[in-house]
Amino acid sequence: MSISITGTIEKKDIGTGAWALVSDEGTTYEILRGADKNLLKVGQKAKVTGNVRQDIMTAAMIGPVLEVKSFEVM
Questions:
Q1: Looking at residue 39, which CATH number applies to its domain?
Q2: pTM value?
Q3: Do 49 and 69 contact (CB within 8 A), yes or no?
Q4: Which of 27, 41, 59, 65 suits 8 as a labelling partner, its CA being 20 to 30 A distant?
């Protein structure tokens, strides 16, 4: 299921580190590794389109895992 989320990029200091998108509504999504480096900038606002993966667990476990398909910097 594809979703679009607007929020702010954060880097969480858990384990080796995890990238997150914190939505404007306050939900934290863990960005699946391999996302475009142009998205992964702390404090950057973006509209991200992707899939929430139900079949993946991570060491950070900071929220639903978001596989990014595309994004637009705000």
A1: 2.40.50.430
A2: 0.92
A3: yes
A4: 59
**Which structure tokens are listed for 60?**
């950070």
Name the domain count of the chain. 1
pLDDT tens digits along 41-67: 999 999 999 999 999 988 889 999 999
Q: Tell me 63's DSSP state.
A: S
- Domain assignment of residue 55, given as a range: 2-73
- Residue 55 structure tokens: 């079949």
Task: Say if residue 56 is exposed, middle or buried (CB neighbours under 10 Å; 0-12, 13-18, 19+).
Answer: exposed
Residue-wise pLDDT tens digits, 14-43: 878 899 999 999 999 999 998 999 999 999
